[in-house]
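Repro:
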Amino acid sequence: MYMDINDLMGEILQQSTCEGCFTLDELLHYGTVHSSTGIGVSKEEKHTFFLVFSSGEPNGAMFVDEKGTLFGDSAVLRLTGREEFELFPVMTPIADALVSRCRIFEKSHLKKNGRLDIPTIGTPTRQRVGILCLTVRNGRVPLAGAHVAIRKGKVVMTSDVTDSGGRVCFRLLNGRYMCVVSDRIGERTRCIIEFHEPQVETYVDIGGTEDENR
């Protein structure tokens, strides 16, 4: 059974490309923000864990070792929170087919030890999705064509290029992020951005030393 499941998943994953490496917390956050449909894979020496996402929701799980396979809620209970996952996007029909065999019914299992909807000190206890709009300026001049990356720790959560007015918007969970602005010269500035409202408009000045939200 161990070989059968791993062979099946291996065939599916061979048709995809790794989208990034994440801790469990980061994977749950990334999946929610990007409405990901894919498979998170954590391989250890003696076992493998698969977490299946459908439109950003962690809906299925499998824990595979030499003794056999656990599905759904039973698999999630084997999580320690210290796993490192690689995320592989897959087509919706594939994710749905997998979830039908390993559905997670009690999402509260993923909340154990703060694994889902992690509260931020000084903010509402439940994170919500909001729109963060940044205007990148060099002094008073908007900077068009700048690359803006939003990072959480070492993970790039999302990125985009500013429009002709130096503006760019992201859909993110409310929280604290590192904003890194680059252009053809290279990295121009980085600053801490925090937002806890449904929509926030702010600016980053690459000619200054700090953003107003830092």
